[in-house]
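User: Structure please.
Assistant: Input sequence and predicted structure:
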Amino acid sequence: SLVFKVETHNSPSALDPYGGALTGIVGVNRDPFGTGMGAKLICNIDVFCFASPFFDKPLPARLLHPKRIMEGVRLGVEHGGNKSGIPTVNGSLVFDERFAGKPLVFCGTVGIMPAKHLGKPSEDKLAMAGDQIVMTGGRIGKDGIHGATFSSEELHEGSPATAVQIGDPITQKKMFDCLLKARDLGLYNCMTDNGAGGLSSSVGEMAQDTGGFELHLDRAPLKYAGLQPWEIFVSEAQERMTLAVPPAKLDEFMALCAAMDVEATVLGTFTNSGKFHLLYEGKTVGYMDMEFVHKGLPPMRMVARWVPPKHAEPALPASPDLGRTLRELLGRLNVCSKEYIIRQYDHEVQGGSVVKPLTGVANDGPSDAAVIRPLLDSFEGVVIAHGICPRYSDIDTYHMAAAAIDEGVRNAVAVGANLTVMAGLDNFCWCDPILSDKTPDGPYKLAQLVRANRALDDITRVYGVPCISGKDSMKNDYQIGGTKISIPPTLLFSAVAKIDDVRKAVTMDAKRAGDLVYVLGITFPELGGSEYAALLGAIGNHVPKVRAEQAMARYRALSRAMAQGLVASCHDCSDGGLGVALAETAFAGGLGLAVDLAEVPNEGIGRDDVLLFSESTSRFVVTVRPEHEKGFQEIMTNTGTARVGVVTEAPVLTALGLTGQTVLKEALATL
């Protein structure tokens, strides 16, 4: 069974980029590890949203320069992942000046666990009344106190740097190894991590199984003296798990922990008293009904009002220089190579990496998704992909969310994922949507959230992709004095899927001269929110729309073609549109492409630049060996597929325009 979780660590990373990101990655490691009876962690992903590292405006109070944040976050995730022995296999960077107010730091982890554990489904866990409450791993300190509440408000002059936890991946790795042995020996009934809220959350959540608990806070191991009982209870100090251990197995469990140099402490007992009972040095310091703890807060009632915004359309040049424009797009921060960051993460540890973050003849082409082989005695594999399109929020968050979902699924399909065994995760990062004096446009921002959720429901139902996890971060604003910076509403949609045989995985690089070039999917005049529109200093209104039923038919057909070995390469069209996808396919393979734009499937497009740089969704650039042409075309019938050119030996990207004239001729070396 596969386990997947993605978390955010935005606020901590804004104040302490290294520490915030380090605890982001080691913290999310504990979520899949604590799923069911415990999972072995097989890979990490990371997606970062920053302002430009070349930001040259005056910085508002308390804000760090975006380059400092970027480098600190990169290093924190590198140290957290590499030192934990978990490969980092997938990720991306997104740049927008509004992320100067608060960066977005998404960290995710995939785990694998046996389908059965001691004769029961491994995802089942249940604390029992009488089980001992045991905390393992790190000690408790003041670091991380108020971490959850601090992350649930805008960045302001009083935001405490002490709310950032201090991570130690080595301590956590030892604990993971120990607890996996304890799992296999059947030494505990239930386990969960100490994340937001520390013991208050982990014990409180597990006690729902039994109906109560009695917790002795003075027994907790501390990093240093001087903590108050409430601080011990809510501290988010890292590297800790809470377990329910049956009394009959307690001695064996504690002996195993001692033998593996993992600190373990009995803090109390799970009960069926119906009470949330805290003690310190024998005195009661907290006593509430469990019913009130979990159901005492009434739901909020809020008002959302949607008014579609209107933006200026990009002023398209009368005679565009497509070669120059393509070079400029390839150099933009959201499109250019991220190799210098990727190379600092270990994607080979554990030995299961198949499709790596970079691919091609020089290993410099951006892979659409990762493929790993977690069990080295099997050729079955796992595909990990994601989609994120915050720029489209400026026009309509419904289509932003739909595009992110489509991109995540599309990237997984591009490497050979099995569409029938795929699941998704939705991570919402939003600016404050609650009406207040500070947020007079709260109803509009809440309407944006409603529309994004409607898209999530609509598109995942058509694609048959269940959302198995996710997280919401709702206060991604900066407010000090009269300055307020709000992020663009953002949905990260991550996909995890099975690939039946990793030997049939497909990469994005052109493979050989003479192969045929196809474009799959129809291009529409959809420059709204695109990189081309941004290059022209505009936003536009014609946002890319997902036509889910047509896209799903295309994805199913492409998957069949891949399963039959008919596809030599496949690359999705996303940022920068078809032009960028063609260039990346070519230079990753060290080969040229000669294409005819008049053959590209499109509707309503009369300009070469719009055809090349529109970011319409659900499209691919595919290369096919000539001997597979007939079989490929038969499978792809009625899916918006057309042959548009050929792979060439000469390393040049050439395109004929809609009128038959050469409109693009660029040596790969210039791209």
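The two ends are 43 Å apart (CA to CA).
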